[in-house]
Amino acid sequence: MAITIKDVAKAANVSIATVSLVMHNHRRISKDTKVKVMEVIEKLNYRPSRSARGLVSRRTGNVGFILTNDHFLRTEPFYTHIFIGTEIEARDHDFYILLNTIDSHFTEKDQLPRFILDKNVDGVIVAGKVSNILIDKLSSLSLPVVYIDYVPSNKNSSTVLVDNIMGGKIATNHLIKLGHRNIGFIGGDIEHPSISDRYKGYRQAIEAEGLPMGSNLIETLEDYPARTNGYNAAKRLFSINPDITAVFACNDAMALGVINYLKDRGLRIPQDISVIGFDDVVSESTVDPPLCTVKVPTVEMGMEAMKLISSHLKNFNGYPQKVMVPVELVVRQSTRKL
Asked: Which of 138, 212, 213, 251 is most buried, judged by most C-beta within 10 A?
């Protein structure tokens, strides 16, 4: 039969509330009482249930994880990897992660996730771009909120971000070092801060080398950085500028779309056109040739977000914090020296 908090209280000759206060290291409890209760806990090998821990802390032990439906796809694993990171880190902080997807066009008429309405979470993690309406609703709550891969409009929440500008420079400079001079950029949802910053990095690298920078090298009309949109963007870009020798796509999904388009045209990668992506979430075995890309530590991003939530809850710290994760070039066979 499992040992309960009542058993500990009886053996230590104290109240159940005192045992709970000891377990939470409350300053109201004397040192002698703490020692006595902890000795009983150790002797009985007592492991408190989540409900018992919540008697004093008034915490649920849950953290909500929100992302939009279009970010929760088998074909777009970027945010899935981030979710896995939060789950891994949550174990070390004794939290459960509750996942909920919302419409990408969240409106005033839409309800917040049920775990918020039912007050069943102690904090919320939001991954990816979401509507300002959702951001405003979350900011009105007395819950710590951490945004991953997005900068909220109110600037009052903690964030975990990718060094996207540096990543854009790294990708573009890789192509420049290989001798390419007509380097195209393909992006979707250019208003997204991450995509916009990758484009900034591309421009900075191009301008630093004094290379051509014109509208016939840039295609950013697509509203989402998906594989199909990468295909369509490449079709438009190469129709107006067939002299491009290399393409930097804003993420791996669009890079795969570019590769599919080039293959349909009978072009070889990288012999005819070099292609580089961003994120490193695509399995090498599914791409021919293996995609050269800029690696984003997605799992680590989720872990950092969970650490921020835990810190806010333990230290009652409401000040916004920003964590910037580094990126690195992963050279594979989709680029070559010109």
From this structure: 251
pLDDT recorded at residue 230: 97
Select from 171, 150, 187, 149 the least CA-distant residue to 297: 149
Give the position of tokens 């012999």: 271
Q: Does residue 25 surpass a pLDDT of 70?
A: no
Instruction: Give the pLDDT of residue 55.
Output: 47
pLDDT in tens, 264-289: 999 999 999 999 999 998 776 678 99
% of residues, the chain, pLDDT over 90: 65
Phi-psi category of 332—alpha, beta or left, where left has phi over 0 and alpha has psi -120 to 50? Answer: beta
Nearest alpha carbon to residue 96 among 114, 75, 121, 132: 121
Question: The domain containing residue 269 runs over which residues?
Answer: 164-296
Please report, for the domain that includes residue 133, its CATH number: 3.40.50.2300
The conformational region for residue 212 under phi > 0 = left, psi -120 to 50 = alpha, else beta, is: beta
Residue 114 placed within a domain:
yes
pLDDT value of residue 257: 96
Residue 253's Cβ-count burial label (10 Å; 0-12, 13-18, 19+) is buried
Helix (H, G, I), strand (E, B) or coil at 105: coil
Query: Would you tell me the crossing angle of helices 16-23 and 31-44 to the nearest 10 degrees?
Result: 90
Is 307 found in the same domain as 282?
Answer: no
Nearest to residue 96, comparing CAs of 273, 327, 310? 310
Answer yes or no: do 238 and 259 share one domain: yes
Q: Distance between CA 279 and CA 80 in Å, rounded?
A: 13
pTM of the model: 0.81
Strand partners, 65: 99, 125
Instruction: Record the tokens describing residue 125, joined without a space.
Output: 């993690």
